[in-house]
Specification:
With about 230 residues, the chain is mainly alpha-helical. Helix content is about 70%, strand content about 0%.
Length: about 230
């Protein structure tokens, strides 16, 4: 392993350790000493990568943002029924939140404005939901009288509420919980021509159960080129 690869792995390990501390103790109570200890590195190694705790929090938030955007883009730009892709992306994001402490901690840090809100992940989620509903409207998938604007508000309230409740009980993110939500919503939203084909449990890879699988291993090659670059 090259020196650069080791630096990337150390950085990723520190980000995960920081996410665990932020989730367990909150931003204010988490300490750099605990973060470095959790990563199994010295305080000097931590400071080589991050100037202070705010910089670590920004890195956690940045990593979470990347994972969430990838999920949204993959589903938003896919083929097929837009309503089904909306269902699928909610299941995909829920699994990310269940499986990856970095995503959970990063989303919470962003909502609380800990790192200065260089990005607004809730606004990005709102745009993803509204974009899929607008596409569904153009494709004739929405029932008569259903508009993207009003429907977005309902979907956003439900999914944001589930994410907040899941901070205390991850059962809210389980596939059956989201399936129940969509079983209630889809009959009200979908036009008769597509209603029968929609799967509230999710379809394809985005809807498959994640049993036995955790978050993907870090891609060192992809990250290597970003070592030392300032975060957005």
């Amino acid at each position: 392993m090259t020196k650069q690869d080791r630096a990337v792995r150390t950085r990723l390990t520190l980000i995960r350790s920081a996410a665990e501390q932020f989730e367990a103790r909150g931003y204010v109570r988490a300490s750099l000493a605990e973060i470095s200890a959790g990563a199994g590195v010295s305080s000097g190694a931590l400071h080589f990568h991050f100037a202070n705790k705010a910089a670590v929090a920004e890195a956690v938030e940045h990593a979470a943002a990347g994972a969430l955007r990838e999920a949204a883009v993959r589903t938003r730009d896919g083929d097929g029924c837009a309503l089904q892709r909306l269902v699928d992306v909610t299941h995909h994001v829920a699994r990310l939140l269940c499986d990856d402490v970095v995503v959970r901690a990063g989303l919470r840090l962003n909502a609380e404005g800990v790192a200065g809100r260089a990005r607004d992940l809730r606004r990005e989620w709102r745009e993803c939901v509204h974009g899929l509903l607008a596409e569904a409207e153009r494709g004739g998938e929405l029932a008569a009288g259903v508009t993207p604007q009003r429907t977005s508000a309902v979907v956003l309230a439900a999914t944001t509420g589930i994410e907040v409740l899941a901070r205390e009980d991850q059962g809210w993110l389980a596939r059956p919980s989201l399936t129940d939500l969509w079983q209630l919503l889809l009959p009200c939203l979908a036009a008769p021509c597509v209603a029968g084909a929609l799967d509230p449990a999710g379809s394809g890879p985005a809807g498959s159960d994640p049993a036995g699988s955790g978050p993907a291993a870090p891609d060192v090659a992809a990250e290597a080129g970003r070592v030392g670059l300032a975060l957005r």
